[in-house]
Amino acid sequence: MTAPVSFQGIGASPGVAVGQAFVLDARKVRTPKVKLKPEEADTEVMRFKTAITLSDVQLEDLKVKLATGAENEHGLILEAHRMMLHDPMFLVEVTRLIKEETINAEWAVRRVCRRLRHQFDNLEDEYFRERKSDIEFVTDRIVRNLMGEIVDQELEVPVGAIVVAHDISPADAAMLVKTGKVGAFVTDLGGHTSHMAIVARARDVPAVLALGKAADAIRSGDTIAVDGRRGLVLVNPSEEQLALFRETMRRQLATEAIALKTAELPSITIDGVRVRLNGNIEFVDEIPSLLAHGAEGIGLYRTEFLFLDRPAPPTEEEHYEAYKAVLLAMGDRPVTIRTLDLGGDKIPGKKWEKEINPALGLRAIRYCLQHRDLFRAQLRALLRASVHGNLKVMFPMVSGVSELREARSELEACRSELSRQGVPMGRRFPVGIMVETPSAAWIADRLASEAEFFSIGTNDLIQYSLAIDRQNRDVAYLYRPLHLSILRMVEHIVKAAKAAGIPVSMCGEMAGDSSLTLVLLALGLDEFSMTSGQIAVVKRIIRSVSMSEAKELLAKAMQFSTAEEIERFVKHEMDQRFSNGDL
Ligand code: PEP
Ligand code: MG
Asked: Is 74 a catalytic residue?
Protein backbone atom coordinates (compact mmCIF):
# COMPACT_ATOMS: atom_id res chain seq x y z
CA MET A 1 0.00 0.00 0.00
CA THR A 2 1.36 3.44 -0.91
CA ALA A 3 1.55 6.33 1.56
CA PRO A 4 -1.35 8.82 1.84
CA VAL A 5 -1.21 11.33 -0.99
CA SER A 6 -3.68 13.67 -2.70
CA PHE A 7 -4.09 14.76 -6.30
CA GLN A 8 -5.93 17.71 -7.78
CA GLY A 9 -7.39 17.28 -11.25
CA ILE A 10 -10.41 18.35 -13.25
CA GLY A 11 -13.76 17.41 -11.73
CA ALA A 12 -15.35 16.10 -14.92
CA SER A 13 -18.36 14.30 -13.49
CA PRO A 14 -19.77 15.18 -10.04
CA GLY A 15 -20.31 12.82 -7.13
CA VAL A 16 -18.29 11.32 -4.31
CA ALA A 17 -17.01 7.74 -4.16
CA VAL A 18 -14.74 5.74 -1.90
CA GLY A 19 -13.44 2.32 -2.98
CA GLN A 20 -10.54 0.10 -3.92
CA ALA A 21 -8.38 1.08 -6.88
CA PHE A 22 -8.55 -1.07 -10.00
CA VAL A 23 -5.60 0.03 -12.13
CA LEU A 24 -5.97 -0.62 -15.84
CA ASP A 25 -2.96 -1.82 -17.76
CA ALA A 26 -1.26 1.36 -18.89
CA ARG A 27 0.98 -0.51 -21.30
CA LYS A 28 1.40 1.39 -24.55
CA VAL A 29 0.64 -0.50 -27.72
CA ARG A 30 4.03 -1.44 -29.17
CA THR A 31 4.59 -0.43 -32.80
CA PRO A 32 7.03 -2.62 -34.73
CA LYS A 33 8.99 -0.75 -37.43
CA VAL A 34 10.02 -2.81 -40.45
CA LYS A 35 11.46 -1.80 -43.84
CA LEU A 36 9.79 -3.77 -46.65
CA LYS A 37 11.05 -5.01 -49.96
CA PRO A 38 9.30 -3.09 -52.77
CA GLU A 39 7.48 -6.23 -53.93
CA GLU A 40 5.94 -6.66 -50.44
CA ALA A 41 4.17 -3.28 -50.48
CA ASP A 42 0.96 -4.45 -52.17
CA THR A 43 0.46 -7.29 -49.69
CA GLU A 44 1.12 -4.83 -46.85
CA VAL A 45 -1.59 -2.50 -48.17
CA MET A 46 -3.97 -5.46 -48.20
CA ARG A 47 -3.02 -6.25 -44.60
CA PHE A 48 -3.75 -2.62 -43.66
CA LYS A 49 -7.14 -2.73 -45.39
CA THR A 50 -8.04 -5.95 -43.58
CA ALA A 51 -7.19 -4.34 -40.24
CA ILE A 52 -9.44 -1.39 -41.13
CA THR A 53 -12.33 -3.72 -41.98
CA LEU A 54 -11.78 -5.68 -38.78
CA SER A 55 -11.67 -2.50 -36.69
CA ASP A 56 -14.86 -1.31 -38.36
CA VAL A 57 -16.67 -4.58 -37.61
CA GLN A 58 -15.48 -4.45 -33.98
CA LEU A 59 -16.74 -0.89 -33.51
CA GLU A 60 -20.09 -1.76 -35.08
CA ASP A 61 -20.38 -4.82 -32.79
CA LEU A 62 -19.56 -2.68 -29.79
CA LYS A 63 -22.16 -0.13 -30.79
CA VAL A 64 -24.84 -2.83 -30.96
CA LYS A 65 -23.66 -4.39 -27.72
CA LEU A 66 -23.65 -1.10 -25.83
CA ALA A 67 -26.91 0.28 -27.26
CA THR A 68 -29.55 0.58 -24.57
CA GLY A 69 -33.02 1.43 -25.78
CA ALA A 70 -33.87 4.30 -28.07
CA GLU A 71 -31.04 6.57 -26.92
CA ASN A 72 -28.33 4.38 -28.40
CA GLU A 73 -25.89 5.58 -25.78
CA HIS A 74 -22.30 6.03 -26.86
CA GLY A 75 -23.38 5.35 -30.42
CA LEU A 76 -22.25 8.77 -31.64
CA ILE A 77 -18.80 8.37 -30.14
CA LEU A 78 -18.24 4.96 -31.68
CA GLU A 79 -19.68 6.20 -34.94
CA ALA A 80 -17.15 9.06 -34.88
CA HIS A 81 -14.37 6.50 -34.44
CA ARG A 82 -15.69 4.54 -37.41
CA MET A 83 -15.63 7.70 -39.49
CA MET A 84 -12.01 8.31 -38.56
CA LEU A 85 -11.23 4.81 -39.82
CA HIS A 86 -12.73 5.68 -43.17
CA ASP A 87 -11.31 9.18 -43.48
CA PRO A 88 -10.06 9.26 -47.10
CA MET A 89 -7.04 11.39 -46.21
CA PHE A 90 -5.96 8.84 -43.60
CA LEU A 91 -6.37 5.88 -45.95
CA VAL A 92 -4.55 7.58 -48.82
CA GLU A 93 -1.66 8.74 -46.64
CA VAL A 94 -1.05 5.38 -44.97
CA THR A 95 -1.18 3.61 -48.35
CA ARG A 96 1.23 6.17 -49.81
CA LEU A 97 3.74 5.69 -46.99
CA ILE A 98 3.61 1.90 -47.31
CA LYS A 99 4.19 2.10 -51.07
CA GLU A 100 6.58 5.02 -51.40
CA GLU A 101 8.63 4.58 -48.28
CA THR A 102 8.24 0.78 -48.17
CA ILE A 103 7.52 0.65 -44.45
CA ASN A 104 5.19 -1.75 -42.64
CA ALA A 105 1.55 -0.84 -41.99
CA GLU A 106 1.91 -0.42 -38.20
CA TRP A 107 4.66 2.16 -38.69
CA ALA A 108 2.79 3.99 -41.44
CA VAL A 109 -0.41 4.16 -39.36
CA ARG A 110 1.51 5.57 -36.39
CA ARG A 111 3.22 8.22 -38.52
CA VAL A 112 -0.02 9.48 -40.04
CA CYS A 113 -1.58 9.47 -36.58
CA ARG A 114 1.27 11.61 -35.24
CA ARG A 115 0.74 14.13 -38.03
CA LEU A 116 -3.01 14.28 -37.38
CA ARG A 117 -2.49 14.74 -33.66
CA HIS A 118 -0.12 17.56 -34.38
CA GLN A 119 -2.83 19.45 -36.30
CA PHE A 120 -4.97 19.36 -33.17
CA ASP A 121 -2.13 20.65 -30.97
CA ASN A 122 -2.49 24.12 -32.36
CA LEU A 123 -6.17 24.43 -31.60
CA GLU A 124 -7.01 26.67 -28.72
CA ASP A 125 -10.28 25.06 -27.84
CA GLU A 126 -9.99 22.37 -25.18
CA TYR A 127 -12.70 20.28 -26.84
CA PHE A 128 -10.71 19.93 -30.02
CA ARG A 129 -7.46 19.25 -28.28
CA GLU A 130 -9.25 16.41 -26.52
CA ARG A 131 -10.04 14.83 -29.89
CA LYS A 132 -6.38 13.91 -30.10
CA SER A 133 -6.95 11.02 -27.75
CA ASP A 134 -9.73 9.75 -30.01
CA ILE A 135 -7.23 9.58 -32.86
CA GLU A 136 -4.91 7.66 -30.54
CA PHE A 137 -7.61 5.16 -29.58
CA VAL A 138 -8.50 4.48 -33.20
CA THR A 139 -4.83 4.09 -34.14
CA ASP A 140 -4.20 1.70 -31.24
CA ARG A 141 -7.10 -0.44 -32.40
CA ILE A 142 -5.75 -0.64 -35.97
CA VAL A 143 -2.23 -1.44 -34.77
CA ARG A 144 -3.53 -4.11 -32.37
CA ASN A 145 -5.52 -5.69 -35.18
CA LEU A 146 -2.49 -5.61 -37.47
CA MET A 147 -0.56 -7.50 -34.82
CA GLY A 148 -3.34 -9.98 -34.12
CA GLU A 149 -3.78 -8.83 -30.51
CA ILE A 150 -7.01 -9.15 -28.56
CA VAL A 151 -9.13 -5.99 -28.44
CA ASP A 152 -12.28 -5.10 -26.50
CA GLN A 153 -11.55 -7.58 -23.80
CA GLU A 154 -14.28 -7.56 -21.17
CA LEU A 155 -12.77 -6.46 -17.87
CA GLU A 156 -13.77 -8.10 -14.62
CA VAL A 157 -14.10 -5.13 -12.30
CA PRO A 158 -14.99 -5.61 -8.62
CA VAL A 159 -18.20 -3.88 -7.50
CA GLY A 160 -17.61 -0.25 -6.51
CA ALA A 161 -14.06 -0.20 -7.93
CA ILE A 162 -12.34 3.10 -8.60
CA VAL A 163 -11.00 2.57 -12.10
CA VAL A 164 -7.59 4.22 -12.45
CA ALA A 165 -5.78 4.59 -15.78
CA HIS A 166 -3.43 6.79 -17.72
CA ASP A 167 -6.29 7.24 -20.19
CA ILE A 168 -9.42 5.26 -21.01
CA SER A 169 -10.87 4.90 -24.49
CA PRO A 170 -14.56 5.80 -24.82
CA ALA A 171 -15.21 2.19 -25.84
CA ASP A 172 -13.60 0.85 -22.65
CA ALA A 173 -15.31 3.51 -20.55
CA ALA A 174 -18.67 2.63 -22.05
CA MET A 175 -18.13 -1.09 -21.49
CA LEU A 176 -17.02 -0.52 -17.90
CA VAL A 177 -19.95 1.78 -17.11
CA LYS A 178 -22.33 -0.75 -18.58
CA THR A 179 -21.26 -3.34 -15.97
CA GLY A 180 -22.75 -1.00 -13.34
CA LYS A 181 -19.82 -1.83 -11.06
CA VAL A 182 -17.61 1.26 -11.47
CA GLY A 183 -17.53 3.55 -8.43
CA ALA A 184 -15.56 6.32 -10.17
CA PHE A 185 -13.00 7.02 -12.88
CA VAL A 186 -9.57 8.55 -12.24
CA THR A 187 -7.25 9.27 -15.17
CA ASP A 188 -4.04 11.16 -15.92
CA LEU A 189 -5.27 12.58 -19.23
CA GLY A 190 -8.60 13.95 -20.45
CA GLY A 191 -10.65 17.02 -19.63
CA HIS A 192 -14.18 18.25 -19.15
CA THR A 193 -15.17 17.62 -22.76
CA SER A 194 -13.32 14.36 -23.38
CA HIS A 195 -15.59 11.52 -24.34
CA MET A 196 -14.75 9.64 -21.21
CA ALA A 197 -16.11 12.60 -19.19
CA ILE A 198 -19.27 12.69 -21.27
CA VAL A 199 -19.83 8.96 -20.81
CA ALA A 200 -19.29 9.32 -17.04
CA ARG A 201 -21.66 12.28 -16.73
CA ALA A 202 -24.31 10.59 -18.84
CA ARG A 203 -24.34 7.68 -16.37
CA ASP A 204 -23.77 9.72 -13.18
CA VAL A 205 -20.41 8.07 -12.42
CA PRO A 206 -18.01 10.47 -10.63
CA ALA A 207 -14.82 11.21 -12.59
CA VAL A 208 -11.64 13.17 -11.95
CA LEU A 209 -9.41 13.57 -14.98
CA ALA A 210 -6.18 15.30 -15.99
CA LEU A 211 -4.32 14.26 -12.85
CA GLY A 212 -0.96 14.12 -14.60
CA LYS A 213 0.83 11.22 -12.94
CA ALA A 214 -1.71 9.61 -10.63
CA ALA A 215 -1.90 6.26 -12.44
CA ASP A 216 1.77 5.57 -11.75
CA ALA A 217 1.40 6.40 -8.07
CA ILE A 218 -1.64 4.22 -7.43
CA ARG A 219 -1.60 0.43 -6.98
CA SER A 220 -4.60 -1.87 -7.42
CA GLY A 221 -6.15 -2.35 -4.01
CA ASP A 222 -5.23 1.11 -2.66
CA THR A 223 -8.13 2.89 -0.97
CA ILE A 224 -9.20 5.85 -3.09
CA ALA A 225 -11.57 8.69 -2.25
CA VAL A 226 -12.85 10.69 -5.22
CA ASP A 227 -14.69 14.01 -5.19
CA GLY A 228 -15.87 14.54 -8.75
CA ARG A 229 -17.13 18.05 -8.11
CA ARG A 230 -13.94 19.45 -6.60
CA GLY A 231 -11.61 17.35 -8.76
CA LEU A 232 -9.97 15.84 -5.68
CA VAL A 233 -8.49 12.34 -5.34
CA LEU A 234 -7.09 11.00 -2.04
CA VAL A 235 -4.96 7.86 -2.10
CA ASN A 236 -4.98 5.82 1.13
CA PRO A 237 -6.54 8.70 3.11
CA SER A 238 -6.31 9.00 6.89
CA GLU A 239 -9.25 7.90 9.07
CA GLU A 240 -10.39 11.52 9.53
CA GLN A 241 -10.22 12.29 5.82
CA LEU A 242 -12.16 9.15 5.10
CA ALA A 243 -14.81 10.01 7.67
CA LEU A 244 -15.20 13.44 6.08
CA PHE A 245 -15.51 11.94 2.63
CA ARG A 246 -18.09 9.42 3.81
CA GLU A 247 -20.12 12.23 5.39
CA THR A 248 -20.05 14.24 2.12
CA MET A 249 -21.03 11.10 0.26
CA ARG A 250 -23.93 10.44 2.63
CA ARG A 251 -25.17 14.04 2.21
CA GLN A 252 -24.88 13.93 -1.56
CA LEU A 253 -26.71 10.62 -1.76
CA ALA A 254 -29.48 12.03 0.43
CA THR A 255 -29.71 15.15 -1.78
CA GLU A 256 -29.75 12.99 -4.88
CA ALA A 257 -32.50 10.81 -3.43
CA ILE A 258 -34.58 13.93 -2.73
CA ALA A 259 -33.76 15.20 -6.21
CA LEU A 260 -35.07 12.07 -7.83
CA LYS A 261 -38.16 12.10 -5.61
CA THR A 262 -38.95 15.74 -6.35
CA ALA A 263 -38.32 15.37 -10.07
CA GLU A 264 -42.03 15.42 -10.85
CA LEU A 265 -42.89 18.42 -8.63
CA PRO A 266 -43.49 21.76 -10.39
CA SER A 267 -41.07 24.63 -9.87
CA ILE A 268 -43.46 27.13 -8.35
CA THR A 269 -42.94 29.77 -5.66
CA ILE A 270 -45.09 29.75 -2.52
CA ASP A 271 -47.05 32.71 -3.93
CA GLY A 272 -47.81 30.79 -7.12
CA VAL A 273 -45.26 32.00 -9.71
CA ARG A 274 -44.42 29.12 -12.04
CA VAL A 275 -41.12 28.94 -13.94
CA ARG A 276 -39.79 26.13 -16.14
CA LEU A 277 -36.54 24.31 -15.43
CA ASN A 278 -34.90 22.91 -18.55
CA GLY A 279 -31.63 21.15 -19.30
CA ASN A 280 -28.56 22.00 -21.37
CA ILE A 281 -27.10 19.18 -23.46
CA GLU A 282 -24.25 18.53 -25.84
CA PHE A 283 -25.12 14.91 -26.61
CA VAL A 284 -28.23 12.77 -26.72
CA ASP A 285 -26.70 10.49 -24.06
CA GLU A 286 -27.29 13.19 -21.45
CA ILE A 287 -31.09 13.00 -21.78
CA PRO A 288 -31.85 10.05 -19.44
CA SER A 289 -30.13 11.81 -16.54
CA LEU A 290 -31.92 15.10 -17.36
CA LEU A 291 -35.30 13.41 -17.35
CA ALA A 292 -34.56 11.54 -14.12
CA HIS A 293 -33.77 14.90 -12.49
CA GLY A 294 -37.01 16.45 -13.69
CA ALA A 295 -36.00 18.64 -16.63
CA GLU A 296 -39.15 19.88 -18.33
CA GLY A 297 -37.47 20.30 -21.68
CA ILE A 298 -34.16 21.14 -23.31
CA GLY A 299 -33.32 24.82 -23.16
CA LEU A 300 -30.04 24.55 -25.06
CA TYR A 301 -28.72 21.83 -27.33
CA ARG A 302 -25.21 22.87 -28.42
CA THR A 303 -25.19 21.34 -31.90
CA GLU A 304 -21.59 22.29 -32.69
CA PHE A 305 -20.47 19.36 -30.55
CA LEU A 306 -22.00 16.99 -33.06
CA PHE A 307 -20.40 18.89 -35.89
CA LEU A 308 -16.95 19.16 -34.46
CA ASP A 309 -16.27 15.58 -33.55
CA ARG A 310 -15.03 14.61 -36.97
CA PRO A 311 -12.72 15.51 -39.81
CA ALA A 312 -15.53 16.64 -42.17
CA PRO A 313 -18.86 18.42 -41.60
CA PRO A 314 -21.87 16.19 -41.03
CA THR A 315 -24.25 15.65 -43.92
CA GLU A 316 -27.85 16.86 -43.79
CA GLU A 317 -28.82 13.24 -43.06
CA GLU A 318 -26.49 13.04 -40.07
CA HIS A 319 -27.81 16.33 -38.68
CA TYR A 320 -31.32 14.99 -39.16
CA GLU A 321 -30.62 11.70 -37.36
CA ALA A 322 -29.09 13.53 -34.37
CA TYR A 323 -32.04 15.93 -34.00
CA LYS A 324 -34.57 13.17 -34.51
CA ALA A 325 -32.92 11.13 -31.72
CA VAL A 326 -33.08 14.07 -29.29
CA LEU A 327 -36.68 14.97 -30.18
CA LEU A 328 -37.85 11.37 -29.86
CA ALA A 329 -36.06 10.94 -26.54
CA MET A 330 -37.82 14.05 -25.18
CA GLY A 331 -41.34 13.06 -26.32
CA ASP A 332 -43.64 16.10 -26.35
CA ARG A 333 -41.38 18.22 -24.12
CA PRO A 334 -39.92 21.31 -25.83
CA VAL A 335 -36.43 20.94 -27.31
CA THR A 336 -34.53 24.15 -28.10
CA ILE A 337 -31.87 23.46 -30.69
CA ARG A 338 -29.26 26.13 -31.21
CA THR A 339 -27.78 26.41 -34.67
CA LEU A 340 -24.01 25.95 -34.97
CA ASP A 341 -21.86 28.13 -32.73
CA LEU A 342 -18.60 27.61 -34.62
CA GLY A 343 -15.68 29.94 -35.04
CA GLY A 344 -13.07 30.21 -37.76
CA ASP A 345 -10.41 28.55 -35.61
CA LYS A 346 -12.70 25.73 -34.58
CA ILE A 347 -12.93 23.76 -37.79
CA PRO A 348 -10.66 20.74 -37.55
CA GLY A 349 -9.30 19.14 -40.70
CA LYS A 350 -9.37 22.49 -42.45
CA LYS A 351 -6.59 24.99 -42.92
CA TRP A 352 -7.60 27.97 -40.87
CA GLU A 353 -6.32 31.45 -40.56
CA LYS A 354 -5.75 32.06 -36.88
CA GLU A 355 -7.88 35.00 -35.88
CA ILE A 356 -6.21 37.46 -33.56
CA ASN A 357 -9.31 37.65 -31.43
CA PRO A 358 -11.54 34.68 -32.14
CA ALA A 359 -14.16 35.61 -29.53
CA LEU A 360 -14.81 38.77 -31.54
CA GLY A 361 -14.35 37.06 -34.88
CA LEU A 362 -16.27 35.06 -37.42
CA ARG A 363 -18.26 32.82 -35.12
CA ALA A 364 -21.79 31.47 -34.66
CA ILE A 365 -24.47 33.14 -36.79
CA ARG A 366 -21.83 35.25 -38.57
CA TYR A 367 -20.02 32.10 -39.61
CA CYS A 368 -23.22 30.37 -40.76
CA LEU A 369 -24.32 33.35 -42.82
CA GLN A 370 -20.97 33.24 -44.62
CA HIS A 371 -21.05 29.46 -45.09
CA ARG A 372 -24.51 29.00 -46.49
CA ASP A 373 -24.16 25.37 -47.59
CA LEU A 374 -23.26 24.33 -44.11
CA PHE A 375 -26.08 26.44 -42.63
CA ARG A 376 -28.63 25.13 -45.12
CA ALA A 377 -27.76 21.49 -44.36
CA GLN A 378 -28.53 22.16 -40.71
CA LEU A 379 -31.71 24.18 -41.36
CA ARG A 380 -33.10 21.56 -43.77
CA ALA A 381 -32.37 18.85 -41.22
CA LEU A 382 -34.13 20.84 -38.49
CA LEU A 383 -37.19 21.40 -40.66
CA ARG A 384 -37.33 17.69 -41.48
CA ALA A 385 -36.75 16.63 -37.87
CA SER A 386 -39.57 18.89 -36.66
CA VAL A 387 -42.08 16.09 -37.40
CA HIS A 388 -40.61 14.12 -34.50
CA GLY A 389 -41.32 16.35 -31.54
CA ASN A 390 -41.73 19.78 -30.00
CA LEU A 391 -38.94 21.75 -31.64
CA LYS A 392 -37.76 25.33 -31.08
CA VAL A 393 -34.77 26.76 -32.96
CA MET A 394 -32.52 29.62 -31.91
CA PHE A 395 -29.63 31.50 -33.47
CA PRO A 396 -26.48 32.25 -31.42
CA MET A 397 -24.49 35.52 -31.12
CA VAL A 398 -27.04 37.70 -32.88
CA SER A 399 -25.84 41.29 -32.68
CA GLY A 400 -28.46 43.02 -34.81
CA VAL A 401 -31.87 42.71 -36.45
CA SER A 402 -30.39 42.16 -39.93
CA GLU A 403 -28.70 38.95 -38.85
CA LEU A 404 -31.97 37.63 -37.46
CA ARG A 405 -33.78 38.56 -40.67
CA GLU A 406 -31.15 36.95 -42.86
CA ALA A 407 -31.13 33.75 -40.81
CA ARG A 408 -34.93 33.58 -40.85
CA SER A 409 -35.06 34.16 -44.55
CA GLU A 410 -32.59 31.32 -45.13
CA LEU A 411 -34.81 29.12 -42.97
CA GLU A 412 -37.86 30.08 -45.03
CA ALA A 413 -35.99 29.41 -48.27
CA CYS A 414 -35.16 25.92 -47.00
CA ARG A 415 -38.79 25.41 -45.99
CA SER A 416 -40.04 26.32 -49.49
CA GLU A 417 -37.43 24.11 -51.10
CA LEU A 418 -38.39 21.09 -48.97
CA SER A 419 -42.04 21.77 -49.60
CA ARG A 420 -41.43 21.85 -53.39
CA GLN A 421 -39.56 18.57 -53.07
CA GLY A 422 -42.51 17.07 -51.19
CA VAL A 423 -40.42 16.34 -48.09
CA PRO A 424 -42.51 16.00 -44.89
CA MET A 425 -42.08 18.71 -42.23
CA GLY A 426 -43.74 19.31 -38.88
CA ARG A 427 -45.83 22.36 -37.98
CA ARG A 428 -44.14 25.77 -37.85
CA PHE A 429 -41.85 25.94 -34.82
CA PRO A 430 -40.89 28.98 -32.73
CA VAL A 431 -37.69 30.72 -33.84
CA GLY A 432 -35.74 32.67 -31.23
CA ILE A 433 -32.34 34.11 -30.50
CA MET A 434 -29.63 33.90 -27.89
CA VAL A 435 -29.20 37.31 -26.31
CA GLU A 436 -25.50 37.27 -25.52
CA THR A 437 -24.05 40.47 -26.96
CA PRO A 438 -24.55 43.88 -25.33
CA SER A 439 -25.71 45.12 -28.70
CA ALA A 440 -28.58 42.61 -28.78
CA ALA A 441 -29.42 43.53 -25.19
CA TRP A 442 -29.79 47.21 -26.02
CA ILE A 443 -32.02 46.61 -29.02
CA ALA A 444 -33.94 43.82 -27.30
CA ASP A 445 -37.22 45.66 -27.98
CA ARG A 446 -36.60 45.57 -31.73
CA LEU A 447 -35.39 41.98 -31.70
CA ALA A 448 -38.38 40.96 -29.57
CA SER A 449 -40.76 42.03 -32.31
CA GLU A 450 -39.10 39.64 -34.77
CA ALA A 451 -38.07 36.72 -32.53
CA GLU A 452 -40.49 34.34 -30.86
CA PHE A 453 -38.40 33.85 -27.73
CA PHE A 454 -35.16 34.96 -26.08
CA SER A 455 -32.56 32.88 -24.32
CA ILE A 456 -29.97 34.87 -22.40
CA GLY A 457 -26.45 33.47 -22.80
CA THR A 458 -24.73 34.93 -19.77
CA ASN A 459 -21.41 33.18 -20.42
CA ASP A 460 -20.88 35.38 -23.43
CA LEU A 461 -22.95 38.34 -22.26
CA ILE A 462 -20.65 38.73 -19.25
CA GLN A 463 -17.55 38.25 -21.41
CA TYR A 464 -18.60 40.91 -23.90
CA SER A 465 -20.11 43.36 -21.40
CA LEU A 466 -17.23 43.38 -18.97
CA ALA A 467 -14.65 43.02 -21.77
CA ILE A 468 -13.00 39.93 -20.31
CA ASP A 469 -11.93 36.89 -22.27
CA ARG A 470 -13.68 33.79 -20.87
CA GLN A 471 -10.51 31.76 -21.44
CA ASN A 472 -8.04 34.19 -19.87
CA ARG A 473 -7.11 33.28 -16.29
CA ASP A 474 -5.51 36.66 -15.65
CA VAL A 475 -8.83 38.46 -15.85
CA ALA A 476 -11.00 35.68 -14.41
CA TYR A 477 -11.39 37.71 -11.21
CA LEU A 478 -13.39 40.27 -13.18
CA TYR A 479 -15.91 37.67 -14.35
CA ARG A 480 -18.76 38.70 -12.03
CA PRO A 481 -22.34 37.60 -12.78
CA LEU A 482 -23.58 39.98 -10.06
CA HIS A 483 -21.96 43.05 -11.60
CA LEU A 484 -24.60 45.79 -11.63
CA SER A 485 -24.23 46.13 -15.40
CA ILE A 486 -25.22 42.48 -15.88
CA LEU A 487 -28.21 42.75 -13.57
CA ARG A 488 -29.38 45.91 -15.34
CA MET A 489 -28.88 44.32 -18.73
CA VAL A 490 -30.83 41.18 -17.85
CA GLU A 491 -33.57 43.36 -16.35
CA HIS A 492 -33.70 45.37 -19.58
CA ILE A 493 -33.85 42.23 -21.78
CA VAL A 494 -36.62 40.67 -19.70
CA LYS A 495 -38.65 43.92 -19.81
CA ALA A 496 -38.41 44.03 -23.59
CA ALA A 497 -39.47 40.39 -23.87
CA LYS A 498 -42.45 40.92 -21.56
CA ALA A 499 -43.54 44.04 -23.41
CA ALA A 500 -43.55 42.05 -26.65
CA GLY A 501 -45.22 39.06 -24.97
CA ILE A 502 -42.47 36.56 -25.73
CA PRO A 503 -40.94 34.09 -23.23
CA VAL A 504 -37.44 34.67 -21.94
CA SER A 505 -35.07 31.98 -20.72
CA MET A 506 -31.49 31.95 -19.41
CA CYS A 507 -29.13 29.15 -20.45
CA GLY A 508 -25.69 30.43 -19.37
CA GLU A 509 -23.93 28.95 -16.31
CA MET A 510 -25.53 31.65 -14.16
CA ALA A 511 -28.95 29.98 -14.54
CA GLY A 512 -27.83 26.85 -12.67
CA ASP A 513 -26.01 28.66 -9.85
CA SER A 514 -28.32 28.12 -6.89
CA SER A 515 -26.83 31.04 -4.95
CA LEU A 516 -28.34 33.31 -7.63
CA THR A 517 -31.76 31.69 -7.93
CA LEU A 518 -33.61 34.39 -5.96
CA VAL A 519 -32.00 37.16 -7.97
CA LEU A 520 -32.90 35.50 -11.28
CA LEU A 521 -36.43 34.74 -10.15
CA ALA A 522 -36.90 38.40 -9.26
CA LEU A 523 -35.53 39.49 -12.61
CA GLY A 524 -38.56 37.80 -14.15
CA LEU A 525 -37.14 34.91 -16.20
CA ASP A 526 -39.75 32.44 -17.44
CA GLU A 527 -37.32 29.56 -17.88
CA PHE A 528 -33.93 28.50 -16.55
CA SER A 529 -31.73 25.99 -18.39
CA MET A 530 -28.87 24.11 -16.69
CA THR A 531 -27.15 20.74 -16.29
CA SER A 532 -29.10 17.90 -14.71
CA GLY A 533 -27.23 17.94 -11.38
CA GLN A 534 -28.28 21.56 -10.71
CA ILE A 535 -32.02 21.19 -11.25
CA ALA A 536 -33.08 19.76 -7.87
CA VAL A 537 -31.40 22.42 -5.71
CA VAL A 538 -32.65 25.29 -7.85
CA LYS A 539 -36.16 23.81 -7.71
CA ARG A 540 -36.02 23.40 -3.93
CA ILE A 541 -35.12 27.08 -3.54
CA ILE A 542 -37.86 28.23 -5.90
CA ARG A 543 -40.46 26.13 -4.06
CA SER A 544 -39.50 27.57 -0.68
CA VAL A 545 -39.59 31.32 -1.41
CA SER A 546 -42.10 33.93 -2.55
CA MET A 547 -41.71 36.18 -5.54
CA SER A 548 -42.32 39.21 -3.32
CA GLU A 549 -39.35 38.41 -1.06
CA ALA A 550 -37.17 37.71 -4.12
CA LYS A 551 -38.12 41.12 -5.54
CA GLU A 552 -37.34 42.82 -2.28
CA LEU A 553 -33.93 41.17 -2.17
CA LEU A 554 -33.14 42.21 -5.73
CA ALA A 555 -34.23 45.80 -5.20
CA LYS A 556 -31.90 46.07 -2.20
CA ALA A 557 -29.05 44.31 -4.02
CA MET A 558 -29.27 46.76 -6.90
CA GLN A 559 -28.79 49.70 -4.53
CA PHE A 560 -25.15 48.71 -4.15
CA SER A 561 -22.54 49.81 -6.66
CA THR A 562 -19.78 47.23 -6.68
CA ALA A 563 -19.98 43.54 -7.59
CA GLU A 564 -18.34 42.70 -4.25
CA GLU A 565 -21.01 44.58 -2.28
CA ILE A 566 -23.82 42.93 -4.21
CA GLU A 567 -22.25 39.48 -3.84
CA ARG A 568 -21.78 39.97 -0.10
CA PHE A 569 -25.37 41.11 0.35
CA VAL A 570 -26.87 38.28 -1.73
CA LYS A 571 -24.72 35.69 0.05
CA HIS A 572 -25.80 36.99 3.43
CA GLU A 573 -29.48 36.85 2.42
CA MET A 574 -29.13 33.32 1.03
CA ASP A 575 -27.24 32.10 4.12
CA GLN A 576 -30.09 33.37 6.29
CA ARG A 577 -32.60 31.30 4.34
CA PHE A 578 -30.69 28.17 3.39
CA SER A 579 -28.11 26.10 5.19
CA ASN A 580 -24.79 25.42 3.48
CA GLY A 581 -25.79 21.94 2.39
CA ASP A 582 -28.67 23.38 0.33
CA LEU A 583 -26.56 25.50 -1.98
C1 PEP B 1 -23.67 31.45 -23.17
O2 PEP B 1 -22.91 32.17 -23.83
O3 PEP B 1 -24.10 31.75 -22.05
C4 PEP B 1 -24.10 30.15 -23.71
C5 PEP B 1 -24.99 29.41 -23.09
O6 PEP B 1 -23.49 29.72 -24.85
P7 PEP B 1 -22.03 29.03 -24.89
O8 PEP B 1 -21.59 28.81 -23.48
O9 PEP B 1 -22.23 27.77 -25.66
O10 PEP B 1 -21.23 30.05 -25.62
MG1 MG C 1 -22.60 31.75 -25.92
From this structure: no
